[in-house]
Amino acid sequence: MPTPEEIQALTEEVEARKAEKQRARDEKKAAKLKKQRAEKFEKLTAPIILVITVLIGLALWFSV
Question: Which residues contact 10 (CB under 8 A, 6 or more apart)?
């Protein structure tokens, strides 16, 4: 029969492993979210630059 101290030590070890696994999952989730945001930003950048360029071109063309 394990002593109460051994049971407490094992419980703490199990809790520490659980916390480590949860932290790893959270980090992986955060990295995935960051990657998705970066991809979305990359997809939106080109059309926004194009629209701004066209608007500037039109503004210059009509001002002449």
Answer: 2
